[in-house]
Amino acid sequence: MIPMHKYSFFCIMIWAAFLLGCSRQSEKTMIADLLKQAQTTLAPDKRTAIFHVQGDLEGRTLTLRGEIQSGEMKEELLRFLKGKVPYGIADSLSVLPQANLGDRTIGVVSVSVANIRTKGDNAAEMANQALLGTPVRLLKQGSDGWFLVQTPDEYLGWTKDNIVRMTPDAYDSWTARPKVIVTTDFGIVRTGKEEASLPVSDVVIGDLLAVETVAGLYYHVLYPDGRKGYLAKAMAEPFGSWLLNAKDTPERIVATAKRFFGIPYLWGGTSSKGMDCSGFTKMVYYLNGVLLPRDASQQAKVGIQVELTPDFTSVAPGDLLFFGSKATDRRPERVTHVAISLGGKRFIHASSYVQTNSLDPADSDYSEDRALAFFYVKRIIGADERNGVRRISAIPYYRALE
Question: Which helix (H) or strand (E) holds 236?
Fold first, then answer.
């Protein structure tokens, strides 16, 4: 039989251990909450920023492990935590780009359309595309030639399509070369000027190529990977003059949208080879000098809110219409589709293929499904960076090509 005084001591020790365990668990919960707060502030959208950080409490030291988008983001995180935790902080974070990439952390797309996936695997979902001549930031190198990249719209994804890695000096030399932008929906660069010459590659609207010389009715063009060929001048335009004339007027937005009639819907597609709904709106605006975010739910956060009138007379051609599932007690609003207004209740969008529909039951192309899922309208034309809308001419890479 245990003496009473030893039994009491035993109970006290158990109780103390219990309290210590509760305190430790409380501290871990506090740390997890703080890291979640930091992520909400520094990297609120996992599609555009990497914040894979965990905090391990060892004694009175908080050790940060995982990976983070940049050195600047890491410094902001450390400043945030130092004022809120009563521990020493040990930094074991891996900062991107990975050190094994060396100084070749810039890539330029060297195929007509590079496919970008959610994981470094051919079987992974396609999430985005990048056009020929587009610069990407290289963040990580995976296996079998895969790279984690970030496109100019800040979207993240993995690709193993032909990305030419460059040092900053090599990239500056590439940027300094005069460029042309492809203005035809589809075309072929050939090894010679003759129509019978072998193809070098296909090209699509929006592709960028360097110009070696102008040869009569052709541009002698250079790819980022060093290939050369001839592109008919009728299929392209000097990038500087194109950019100067790129204007997002209602008339131009609608005309550009209509040129893609019948192009098939492709999940993750953002080119004339195939587009999803937001890839379509993104391409239409890109060809008129505006770089929209990648996804519909991201596009819904930019631009100017349009106050709807019952007859939709407040909706102008070129406005973006958003659709999805409305908020409930259990879940928030979810934007799942975007379209371009043709004025009033009619719109054009990528759904099965690029086509028109209407929210008016009296119209022959009325879509009841879209009418039930309709949310609101945002105006991009006339908006600026204060509204989250970026002009291509204000983005350093594109400005350097003028």
Answer: strand 236-238
Among 181, 341, 360, residue whose Cα is nearest residue 258: 341
pLDDT at position 298 over 60: yes
pLDDT value of residue 15: 40
pLDDT bracket for residue 2 (50, 70, 90): low
Categorize the per-residue pLDDT at 9 as very low, low, confident or very high, splitting at 50, 70 and 90: very low
Residue spans of the domains in the chain: they are 21-96, 100-174, 177-244, 246-394
Q: Enter the tokens of residue 345.
A: 């209740």
Class of domain 100-174: mainly beta
Q: Which residue stretches of 230-361 are H helix?
A: 239-245, 250-258, 277-286, 296-299
Q: Is the pLDDT of residue 11 over 80?
A: no
Kindly report the CATH number that applies to the domain delimited by 246-394. 3.90.1720.10
Q: What is the pLDDT of residues 134-156, one digit of tens each?
A: 999 999 999 999 999 999 999 99
Q: Give the pLDDT of residue 26.
A: 84
What CATH architecture applies to the domain 177-244? Roll (2.30)
Core vs surface per residue 204-220: b (16+ CB within 10 A) or e: bbbbbbbbeeeeeebbb
CATH for 21-96 (3.30.1340, 3.30.750, 3.90.79, 3.30.530): 3.30.1340
State the burial class of residue 183 (Cβ atoms within 10 Å of its Cβ: 0-12, 13-18, 19+): middle
- For residue 157, the SS3 value is strand
pTM: 0.91
Look-up of token digits 């407040």: 314
**CA-CA distance, 85 to 15, in Å (whole number)?**
26
pLDDT at residue 17, rounded to an integer = 38
Measured over the CA atoms of residue 377, residue 383, residue 384 and residue 389, the dihedral's sign is: positive
